[in-house]
Design brief:
The chain is α/β, with parallel strands linked by helices and about 220 residues long. Helices cover about 20% and strands about 30% of the residues. The structure holds zinc ion (2 copies).
Length: about 220
């Protein structure tokens, strides 16, 4: 597993299995947050790397696909911490409904493991330490990105892929609603992160400079 420090508080862990798989470690004031957990075989190593950085507080998921959630149970087998995902993602993760566009249900985790990301009275996702979650549906209904305000980095899960420094659409065969996913990309225009960190591709610097083109080209 490749360990890459992206910014003062964020480390990206990468491995290759057909394509690149990623998880992120975020060092906050109160401890370390694991964002996504890769495939099952990645879980143990992700936890080891996280524990080198401090007390591990929680797992935050960008969405429920198996390549982001597989490491959850291996991590929980060693460390009892809460696991959060957007509430819209729970029925798919718990195998009650198939992900939109797929035929079969997948019981990725037993009921009762995943908790909904906390929200305020207006229903907006609550800030978690230095991370601001934003709902970015399309790739999956409850897809979320996490913006690190101090480091100005957007941990974007499967909102995009990239090629030679250019933003590209998420992988078509795994994306529930491509038009909605492309529109959700406009979060980059709003936040102007210095770096967009991408699960299955190279990260993209100054993505806001190309976001209008990305949205027009893929609308
Ligand atoms: Zn995905
Ligand atoms: Zn993925």
């Amino acid at each position: 597993m490749k360990v890459r420090k992206l910014s003062p508080h964020i480390t990206k862990l990468e491995t290759w299995a057909i394509f690149k798989m990623s998880a992120w470690l975020v060092q906050c004031h109160d401890g370390v947050y694991i964002i996504d957990s890769g495939m099952a075989h990645m879980g143990k190593r992700i936890l080891q790397e996280a524990e080198k950085l401090g007390e591990v507080k929680a797992i935050l998921l960008t969405h429920g696909h198996s390549d982001h959630i597989g490491g959850v149970q291996p991590i929980l087998a060693q460390k009892d911490i809460p696991v959060y995902a957007h509430s819209l993602e729970h029925v798919y993760i718990e195998g009650k409904e198939p992900f939109p566009g797929r035929k079969a249900r997948e019981k990725l985790l037993p009921e009762g493991i995943i908790q909904p990301l906390p929200t305020d009275e207006q229903g907006h996702l609550s800030v978690i330490q230095d991370l601001v979650p934003y709902h970015t549906p399309g790739h999956s209904p409850g897809h979320v990105v996490y913006y690190h305000t101090k480091d100005n980095v957007l941990i974007s899960g499967d909102l995009f892929t990239s090629k030679r420094g250019r933003l590209q659409k998420p992988m078509k065969m795994f994306t529930a609603n491509m038009a909605e996913a492309v529109r959700s990309g406009s979060i980059v225009r709003e936040l102007k992160p210095a770096l967009v960190s991408i699960a299955h591709s190279h990260d993209v610097a100054d993505a806001h400079m190309q976001i209008d083109h990305y949205i027009q080209a893929n609308a």
